[in-house]
UniProtKB/TrEMBL annotation, chain B:
SUPFAM superfamilies attached to this UniProt entry: P-loop containing nucleoside triphosphate hydrolases (SSF52540)
ABC transporter domain residues: 7-239
UniProt protein name: Metal ABC transporter ATP-binding protein
Top-rank taxon, per record: Bacteria
Gene3D superfamilies assigned: P-loop containing nucleotide triphosphate hydrolases
Lineage, broadest ranks: Bacteria, Pseudomonadati, Bacteroidota, Flavobacteriia, Flavobacteriales
Length: 386, 245
């Protein structure tokens, strides 16, 4: 690997981490759409900052962009508060307006300054190592590495300082407010950090694809854990992993780096969506199938409990007597046998004591919905796990 | 019951988009009562609690908690929001939610430690949820979630408790368990204010009641004012309930 390659991957990784952190909270606050809005509407801020400084990596640019990001949120909330339109409509009204102002500004001045719409929207990570930070004749590395590094340090500092406040204001804003931990401050703090990160992610993925780096790793992590800290860590790992894999995919295909990174993010989400242990599609389908079998089992056991007559309990007649609902009677019989709930003598099925007990308990639970008695049953049967 | 006033509300008006939802409320909640706030949907019951807790800014009036504004008395007050107001798919555990009750006394930036964890575990024990402490909150039943919210308020160790529909969507066992804890709080001299929907249980559960329908209709001891007259004034002309006392 050349130095430039290492630098590009380093920049991409730092961008991924900086995005995953606010992204996690945005996903939990159901505000993914607002990143979309921010990522568009920081454009006029960037353009105006660029006209003043003529430098794409100037700090003024970041401040201007962050200001227009926060302005977006303020405008959205203002329109929403009128009560005339809903939040999604308000978002849809605000960001195209700000974005188009940015586009017109670029078009008007495109001849005078070098600011390419493509570069703003899609980023150009491959060129990032060429723009170096020089101090006193010494080369300190790529400018964008410094910018995103500083943004990441600030983000991490804020996360460690205000983790508790972020958590409670995200989960229960009413309680946070009552406790005096202002959810409004947290809200605008998060919006400011998101805006600043979006600008910082500029070189790597551009203003638009940054949405993918904010939302996809967090959404993927959400499917895999029930713990906020783990969700943050997983989101960071997914972000960095996709950034590095995406870089090498682009390298092999000789294609766009930001495009490859985003594609990898999408594929990663798809894999987790399909195969995640609890919330994944296959896991859900398997659980539903198990539940169907268990409902049939319970129907079957209840039938046995209700009928003393031998002809009602003959293996061959069970198929006719009970509507098995797409479940093979054999799998129901096997499940009952495996759990020692029934015995079969000369093709006549009988409940064991355990089976009798289980049936009473299960029916009791279904009728009264009392949880405490079936805690130990939950480990063995999906039906009672909700 | 002492004659001290826990919460004093004067001339309170709250509006959403300039449409008043609470009109000129005067209300004094005596210390040590277990009070129900009753009224039809849209009567402003939740809004009243939110205004007292400074979550919603009133357009007029004043609210005093033991003669001082709420901002100076936060540590005296605990709050149980409506269960439906939060996302129960949030990635966290029962214990962690109860710990959030300690965040107010910790203040900004400081992290909860062993002391807060111990208090949270005790509160979980009190509501009979200790064995569920590491359970993800979406895996709890509605009644269990409500108990977790109650534990979170208990951990605040406050003098006044505000609860927004704590019996909504809970089973009979949980309802009994919750009301027993509330009665214990009253015995310990605490003031408990509950937004309540089931009029049948008002005389059994509460000793004080406030009728609310945008305006305050009546407030006082259940045995004196919980009658058809006030119920009709609050809920409309044809409203009758049988009261067993």
């Amino acid at each position: 690997m050349s130095n430039a390659q290492i630098e590009i991957q380093l920049i991409a990784s730092l961008v991924a981490i900086s995005c995953a952190i606010p992204g996690t909270f945005l996903v939990l606050r159901k505000m993914a759409l607002i990143t979309d809005a921010i990522s568009h509407s920081i454009l006029p801020g960037i353009v105006i900052g660029f006209f003043i400084t003529h430098d794409l990596s100037s700090p003024l640019l970041i401040i201007m962009a962050a200001a227009s990001g926060v302005l977006t949120v303020v405008l959205v909330e203002f329109i929403q508060k009128t009560g005339l339109v809903k939040e999604d409509t308000a978002i849809g009204l605000v960001f195209p307006a700000l974005f188009s102002i940015g586009i017109i500004l670029i078009a008007q001045n495109a001849n005078d300054v070098h600011l390419d719409i493509d570069a703003v929207l899609l980023g150009e990570l491959a060129f990032a190592p060429f723009d170096r930070l020089m101090f006193d004749g010494t080369d300190l590395g790529p400018k964008s590495l410094w910018i995103i590094g500083i943004i990441l340090l600030i983000t991490l500092g804020l996360l460690f300082a205000f983790f508790k406040e972020l958590k409670v204001s995200t989960f229960d804003a009413g309680l946070a407010s009552a406790l005096g931990l202002s959810p409004v401050v947290m809200h605008y703090g998060l919006m400011t950090v998101s805006s600043i990160t979006t600008v910082g992610a500029f070189d790597a993925v551009g203003a638009i694809l940054v949405i993918a780096l904010m939302i996809a790793p967090a959404a993927t992590a959400y499917l895999l854990t029930n713990n906020l800290k783990k969700m943050l860590i997983l989101a960071v790992i997914f972000g960095v992993g996709s950034a590095i894999i995406g870089y090498w995919v682009a390298h092999v295909l000789d294609s766009s780096i930001s495009g490859s990174m985003t594609t990898v993010l999408g594929l990663l989400f798809l894999m987790v969506y399909l195969f995640a242990p609890n919330k994944g599609l296959f896991s859900v389908l398997y659980r539903q199938k198990q539940q169907r079998i268990e409902v049939s089992l319970l129907t079957f056991l209840l039938h046995l409990a209700n009928h003393e007559e031998k002809e009602e309990r003959h293996v061959k007649h069970l198929n006719e007597h009970i509507n098995w609902q797409k479940v093979r009677s054999k799998s129901v019989l096997n499940l009952a046998l495996k759990n020692n709930m029934i015995t079969i003598h000369n093709d006549i099925v009988s409940l064991t004591d355990k089976g009798q007990h289980f049936t009473t308990e299960a029916i009791d639970y279904i009728v009264t919905n009392k949880n405490s008695e079936i805690e130990n049953m939950k480990d063995r049967f999906f039906l009672f796990r909700g | 019951m002492s004659e001290k006033i826990a919460v004093q509300i004067d001339d309170l008006t709250v509006a959403y988009n300039y449409k008043p939802v609470l009109w000129d409320i005067d209300l004094a909640i005596p210390e040590g009562v277990l009070m129900a706030i009753v009224g039809p949907n849209g009567a402003g019951k939740s809004t009243l609690i939110k205004a007292i807790l400074d979550i919603i800014k009133p357009i007029a009036g004043s609210i005093q908690i033991y003669n001082k504004p709420y901002k100076k008395q936060r540590s005296l007050v605990a709050y149980v929001p409506q269960k439906g107001s939060v996302d129960w798919d949030f990635p966290t555990t029962a214990l962690d939610v109860v710990m959030m009750g300690t965040y107010g006394s910790l203040g900004w930036i400081k992290r909860p430690g062993q002391k807060q964890k111990k208090a949270a575990l005790e509160a979980l024990e009190k509501v009979g949820m200790l064995s569920f402490k590491h359970r993800q909150i979406s895996q709890l039943s509605g009644g269990q979630q409500q108990r977790i919210f109650l534990a979170r308020a208990l951990v605040q160790n406050a003098s006044i408790y505000f609860m927004d529909e704590p019996f909504q969507g809970v089973d009979a066992t949980t309802e009994k368990a919750i009301i027993n804890i509330l009665k214990e709080l009253r015995k310990a001299g605490k003031t408990v204010v509950v937004v309540h929907h089931d009029l049948q249980t008002v005389p059994e559960y509460f000793d004080w009641v406030t009728f609310l329908n945008v305006k305050k209709i009546a407030t006082g001891p259940v045995k004196d004012i919980f009658n058809d007259d006030n119920l009709t004034k609050t809920y409309g002309i044809n409203y009758k309930v049988s009261i067993q006392q």
